[in-house]
Specification:
The complex is a heterodimer of chains A (550) and B (160). Chain A contains twelve helices and 20 strands. With 550 residues, chain A is α+β, with helices and mostly antiparallel strands. In chain A, helix 1 packs parallel to helix 12 and helix 5 packs across helix 11. Chain A is globular, with a radius of gyration of 23 Å. In chain B, strand 1 and strand 2 form a beta hairpin. Chain B contains seven helices and two strands; from the N terminus they run E-E-H-H-H-H-H-H-H. In chain B, 38% of the residues are buried. The longest helix of chain B has 22 residues. The chains are: A alpha+beta (550), B mainly alpha (160). At the A-B interface, helix 2, helix 9 and helix 10 of A face helix 5 and helix 6 of B.
């Protein structure tokens, strides 16, 4: 049988294609390496989900090699299994969108033309996108309606242009401490706003509303309120989904992909034929598959005659910080507010999405504020050390844990700024093999020093808010450590076939039936989490494929 | 950090381990009794709440998602703890008075492997203490102690 479309990967990059094309009557098959978990399979079991990594592959079986590249060019090699360095984000139907927190921000118009607006930066490969914000806006709006984004529009200096006045779903219920935060921002002259979330507050779209379970990020959503690709799209279409199907090779002739080869859970090989292939296995794995699929027509890997596949890998730069609120400083009402369970904090700051220092304009970013994750093990583990940094135990530890958990609470922040693309940050193939006997992906890591300067600037603004609110023990860390769940690039799109893997429609320049629709296409990442943009772009490409097949 | 993890081996918890005083075999003990007493010394409150940390350690040692290196470190750490006890007091850990056991813990906490071993054990104790009742280790006493409300729904079966 020849399918109209074969999609590799069922996350935010692949599912909009499956949803749109199967609902338009096309014959769609989705190959997903993980299992099919539904609402009834999800629980808030911290041990299973967060301690034993239930939803990602065992690193013993499938790992990455990480080559850390320093400024002087020296390389330190890490075996992902040996160092427990995990770049998997959720191998399951719907991918990591099942486990996201759903902090949704659009890119800003200037994010599409970073090079033109802010200029070149030494050592970085910054390029403008081949499309602009107006091309993507209708699809951002579509994601709001179809996937479900809740929020409340508040005008601020960097609010992006919108075709609708308001979000289609009202904002989630908020913890009372947001009032302290807003007051602090007002007194500092900062414009904060309620973070848009891909979480439905009420029953709609044939999904249940949020249960305010107090555990959202990292956990699958048992109500379907979270806008995962599975709950919002795959369960709303009849695309055929083949689970536990690890695609290890794509075959091609000179101009088109002919077959996808996959192993089932028993390591038995199968093939799928289709008119159009869509690759959306997350940025690292998509590049790995193309590189591992070299053949006589494409000896460097599929669509890689220009040797650009895997190049310009990016993450979200920035870091995180926190401050602690203590009952000793609060009245009874404030203590109750601080400990309110389930309600969201949901505050963001984009005051410095662009900023100036000594007359020079810099691209800044976003800071999201949220309470420390409710998982208990990391919270109590952070109390294992005294002020001198020595480990403690016994009654001393017992008292410290009890005080920290029952009479204090931490407000944390996460800084998102551009991770500049460079020649030193890319995906390649290592000689090591996984349990299928397939060469593993090598992640070559390098952070541009400029990223740290911007992150530092944003973190200092966040610290001022925490200070104004009266928090103690304020600290933060801005580093070049890559967040594995915020990865993009590797198959950047652009008009020039010599420098780009994909054209502006996310079709490879070299193979006329192969699209890549996860975050691989992004030449730059903007200064926000990527998921909303991945969804929107995939809906955009779905329209293009629909026209092509029609 | 824990370089000794890589090249020393020990048997399973039920088997005898032989403790050296530096030049010859000094004594023998079972890892199980050392581990049980060690975890009680590190966080007695778990036992007082009725948490079955030893049952949890059996889950950990059989768990497919706990690495072989981590399992080996538990067993090696028990052996090294006893060696330190012999070095300081000429007795295995379980035969020492509570005060002397605390001195042994203070001594090993100054070393890289010792601080790591104490930390790992505290983590396992906390995992046991705050585990869902479906694991059969705690009935929620740990949550109650910290006035913690777990997220819903709770798991229907343990992930082991």
């Amino acid at each position: 049988m020849i399918y109209d479309i074969c999609i590799i990967g069922s996350g935010a990059g692949g599912s909009p294609i499956a949803y749109e094309l199967s609902n338009a009557g096309f014959n769609v098959v989705v190959l997903e390496k993980g299992k099919y978990y539904k609402e009834e399979d999800f629980s808030k079991d911290e041990l299973a989900v967060s301690r034993r990594d239930k939803f990602t592959p065992d690193l013993k079986d499938e790992k990455h090699i990480i080559n850390e590249i320093s400024e002087d060019g020296s390389v330190k090699r890490y075996d992902g299994y040996e160092y427990s360095w995990n770049f998997w984000n959720g191998s399951m139907v719907g991918g990591s969108s099942n486990l996201m927190s759903g902090y949704f921000h659009r890119l800003k118009p200037n994010d599409f033309k970073l090079k033109s607006v802010y200029g070149e930066i030494d050592g970085a490969n910054v390029e403008d996108w081949p499309i602009d914000y107006d091309d993507l806006e209708p699809f951002y709006e579509k994601v709001e309606r179809v996937v479900g984004v809740s929020g409340k529009i508040k005008k601020h200096k960097f609010l992006e242009p919108r075709s609708t006045k308001e979000f289609p779903y009202v904002k989630l219920e908020e913890n009372g401490v947001t009032n302290w935060f807003d007051k602090a921002c007002d007194s500092l002259g900062y414009e904060s706003f309620a973070t848009p979330r891909a979480v439905l507050p009420n029953d709609t779209l044939n999904r249940k509303g949020c249960s305010y379970s107090n555990f959202c990020g990292s956990f699958g959503c048992a109500t379907g309120a979270k806008g995962s690709a599975r709950a919002a799209l795959l369960q709303k279409c009849d695309a055929k989904i083949i689970t536990e199907a690890f695609v290890y090779r794509l075959d091609s002739d000179k101009t088109k992909v002919t077959k996808a080869y996959y192993y089932d859970k028993n390591k038995k090989s199968h093939t799928i034929e289709a008119k159009i292939f869509v690759l959306a296995a997350q940025a690292i794995e998509s590049s790995r598959l193309l590189l591992n699929s070299a053949n006589k027509h494409f000896p460097n890997g599929l669509a890689n005659s220009n040797k650009q596949v895997g190049k310009n890998l990016i993450f979200s730069a920035g870091g995180s910080g926190e401050g602690r609120f203590d009952f000793n400083d609060l009245d009874k009402k404030q203590q109750v507010e601080l400990m309110q369970r389930g309600l969201f904090f949901n505050r963001s700051l984009q005051n410095d999405y662009e900023f100036e220092i000594e007359g020079k304009k810099y691209k800044g970013g976003t800071t999201d504020f949220l309470f420390e994750h409710q998982n208990l093990i990391p919270r109590v583990s952070r109390e294992f050390y005294n002020n001198s940094g020595d480990i403690i135990w016994g009654d001393q530890l017992k008292d410290k844990i009890h005080k920290a958990i029952t009479s204090t609470r931490k407000l944390t922040f996460e800084v998102f700024n551009d991770w500049l693309p460079t020649d030193k940050c890319f995906v390649s193939i290592d000689k090591e093999k996984d349990m299928y006997g397939v060469n593993v992906g090598a992640i070559n890591l390098h952070g541009h020093p400029h990223d740290l300067k911007v992150g530092e600037h944003l973190a200092q603004k966040a610290v001022k808010i925490l200070e104004e609110m009266g928090a103690h023990d304020i600290n933060y860390s801005i580093s070049s450590s890559p967040p594995p769940n915020l990865v993009a690039g590797g198959c950047r799109f652009g008009d020039d076939p010599k420098t780009c893997v994909l054209d502006k429609n996310c079709k490879t320049h070299e193979l006329n039936n192969l699209y890549v629709t996860d975050a691989s296409f992004m030449p730059t990442g903007g200064s926000v989490p990527y998921t909303w943009t991945i969804y929107a772009n995939s809906f955009r490409v779905a329209e293009i494929i629909k026209k092509e097949l029609s | 950090m824990f370089s000794r993890r890589k090249f020393l081996k020990a048997g399973c918890l039920g088997s005898i381990i032989f403790i050296s005083n530096g030049c010859s075999v000094f004594s023998a003990t079972t890892p199980k009794e050392t581990l049980s007493l060690l975890q009680e010394d590190l966080f007695p409150h778990s036992k007082s709440m009725g948490i079955d940390t030893q049952k949890y350690m059996q889950i950990i040692l059989k768990h497919t998602r706990v690495s072989d290196e981590d399992k080996k470190f538990i067993k090696n750490g028990i052996k090294w703890l006893n060696e330190e006890a012999v070095l300081l007091y000429d007795q295995t850990y379980v035969k020492l008075s509570p005060a002397k056991r605390q001195e042994v813990l203070k001594t090993i906490s100054k070393t890289n492997w010792g601080a790591g071993f104490i930390r790992d054990n505290l983590i396992y104790i906390m995992e046991a203490s705050f585990s869902d009742p479906v694991y059969g280790v705690s009935d929620g006493q740990g949550w109650e102690w910290l006035d913690f409300k777990t997220g819903l729904p709770q798991p229907k079966e343990a992930y082991v």
